[in-house]
Structure formats: C-alpha cells, structure tokens
Fold this sequence. Notes:
three-stranded antiparallel beta sheet
Amino acid sequence: MGWEKILKGKQGISSSDIKLVNYILRDGEFKTVDRIIDEIYDLIEENNKMRHVEIVRIQGRPTSRKFGANKRGLKVFMANSPDYEVRDTGNKTPTKQPIKEYRYIGE
C-alpha cells in the first residue's frame, strides 16, 4: 500500500494536514512534495500502530491518522504561504514540470 491510498480527492488543505506538514519539515531541510508525502505516510502508519495515549505522550507529535490534502493542493498552499521557502532543483518531471523543494521557515 503506497501513499496514494491515503490521499483524498478534495482541494485545499486542513489545519491537521498543515500540522503534519510542519512536523515533517521541522528539521529545516529542503524536501520535495513526494518526499514530504512519503514521510507523512510513514508517520500515519506509525500512528495507526500506536494507541492514542502513546501518541499524546510524545511531545509535539501530531495525532492524525489520515491526510486529506492532495499533491496539487499541497504545492499551491506551500508556494503561497510565507512560512515556506521554495527552491528549484533544476530537474524536471517526465512531463517537463520543474521539481521544487520546500522548507519550513515559520515558527
């Protein structure tokens, strides 16, 4: 089961989705959207294996068990938000779209 299974078809991004993205990007490294979604999927997998009480004991860890944003909505949100820095990797996808990396610079 890949991360495609946890993605939903709606547009936009909820506050719980934003918390997950910020938690993944808290280390200050640049990451592509695919890598961000992969790490969110891994976090959700770990959360699903743990009881809610165990998740709450870990300070700062989001308790979400699903991720409702899609890749396009996530890209638009991070590109328009002042809390994220965007850089072009210089590489392109097979459809000739530039691959961009994002980093959280908010507080």
